[in-house]
Amino acid sequence: MAKEVTVLIVDDEPHVLSSLQRLLRQEDYQLLLANSAAEALQIMEETLVDVLVSDSRMPEVDGTTLLTRVQKKWPRCIRILLTGYPDIDDLIKSVNEGHLYRFIQKPWDDDEVRLVLRQATRLAFSERERIRLTKLIQTRNKKLSEVNQQLEASVTKRTNALRKAIHLRDRAYKKLEKSYHNSTEVFAALINQRLPKTRQTNDKISALVKAYAEQAGWDAKRVNDLSMAAALYNLGKVTWTDDLLMTPSDNFRGKDRDKYREYPELGESLLLSLEPLQRAAYFIRHHQERWDGRGFPDQLEGGDIPEESRLLKLAIDYIELQRGIILDRMMNRDDALNNLGIYADRVYDPEMSARFIELVHDKAPDLEPLPEGVILCRLKQLKTGMLVKRNLLTDSGFLLLTEGTVLTTGMIEKLMGFERTRREHYHVLIDVSSQDKVAPDSESEPPQED
């Protein structure tokens, strides 16, 4: 949080304020002190306070009355009551009228005070981030809505009277649908803008889950909610540093691992204010649960995990294993699929895993469709005389072959050697017609990998 959250403590006893100031001086938030309710309200008029801790019994204005006033004027401020007199009626009044978050009894336990304030400040920081991102979405949607209205007005002028009623009906539907998708696109862009292309996984994962869902006969709304979840599953990483985004999850330790385990919940919380995305948010929350109950955040097990979240887990791991996002090495496509089978019944739903692997083998929804007249070849399938139809790049973007190159035996051998050295797997797009022009001596088997 880096001092972005402010905590205000109110007590009429100076020695209490001094003790709490000493106790909390090393905490990662800004700490303010006030010796009366009036002084506290003056501070809150001038400063954004995220967490208010108030003594219950103070002269002139007591703690319960202060919390009630704060709740009415600053409802997002988290309110905590500090009391040496745990009177049940006062507590009930504080909870009902002041919307109390917690209460701490005097004499307090130092560790409890630190823990309660850490939890409260984390909640306040998350709420502030949610509000900021919601405002960003609303601003983008407003701009997009203005553009849509201009385009729709232009179309309306060119529409005859007979088709006007139909157009108005269609426009209402499209406007609703576009608003739904615009929110998703803006959120997804927040994280993708900070990632290199090789780590932008949303499109591939969306294609996989959509293909599976449609083959399974899921209805259109369910498929749409699932597609939204696939596009936004890593939204909870939006507050991560660039170094953390580039670190394989298997390498996380300590606080980094704790942050990693929190991202599904944070992703859910950022979307809950958008009603059309609430089902997608629910799927996102549970996409890191495991079939054996050892996942997170809720340790759900087996059939208790939403079916959509189980499918997301399969698709995400399949793609992220190939991109080096889970392990510090990149698996090839076949190894990533084998990994899903190996961990079925522990990490993944075994029946769904088998159907998913079969789908990927049979229909390859994760691969782009090939242009007409082009075939995709592994290096061991290449022959001298074949014509390259698209530039061949390494995973890091290094150019190996240019479009229009006619392959020679030497080129093929060098490519295979490079593939072995780099531990990468290359596919080359070849002009189908060039197969007929292969030299006679190239009909023999191409060089084989060691």
Automatic annotation (TrEMBL):
Domain HD-GYP: 176-372
One annotated GO molecular function: phosphoric diester hydrolase activity
SMART domains referenced in this protein's UniProt entry, alphabetically: REC
Residues carrying 4-aspartylphosphate: 55
Limits of the Response regulatory domain: 6-121
SUPFAM superfamilies: CheY-like, HD-domain/PDEase-like
Statement: the UniProt record of this protein carries the keyword Phosphoprotein: yes
Alphabetic keyword roster: Phosphoprotein
Pfam families: HD_5, Response_reg
Biological processes annotated in GO: phosphorelay signal transduction system
Protein name, UniProt field: Two-component system response regulator
Organism, as annotated: Aliidiomarina minuta
